[in-house]
Design goal:
Strand content: over 45%
Number of helices: 0
Number of strands: 11
Structural class: mainly beta
Order of helices and strands: EEEEEEEEEEE
Helix content: under 10%
Largest sheet: 7 strands, mixed
Mean pLDDT: 95
Radius of gyration: 13 Å
Shape: globular
């Protein structure tokens, strides 16, 4: 499995920006991609974005054009740049590793809180 540690969350006003970081280590070759998920209070965890090791990216429709996922191989870190934030973007953001073997996200970080005030 891969180990993941998120950082960069915080409180921001609507329309503002934040950049989340996820430092990864361990058996990264066991994963197909790394992704970001979020969970709002009282709601299920939802997919936000992913980046594969080949560099391909996928986004949830509600964040397209506002969020950008990227990777710095030298720093073993992926990022989620979030612009034009909305109150509905509030939640705990998790970094996750998609396993090649199980074809599921089975490595998770501890999460980082993002709060967008109106």
């Amino acid at each position: 499995q891969v180990q993941l540690v998120e950082s960069g969350g915080g409180l921001v006003q609507a329309g503002g920006s934040l950049r989340l970081s996820c430092a990864y280590s361990g058996r990264t070759s066991s994963t197909y991609a790394l992704g970001w998920f979020r969970q709002a209070p009282g709601k299920e965890r939802e997919f936000v974005a992913l980046i594969s090791w080949s560099g391909g990216t996928t986004y949830q429709d509600s964040v397209k054009g506002r969020f950008t996922i990227s990777r710095d191989n030298a720093k073993n870190t992926i990022y989620l740049q979030m612009n034009s934030l909305k109150p509905e973007d509030t939640g705990v953001y998790y970094c996750a590793g998609h396993s090649r073997r199980t074809n599921k996200y089975d490595s998770w970080g501890q999460g980082t809180q993002v709060t967008v005030s109106s």
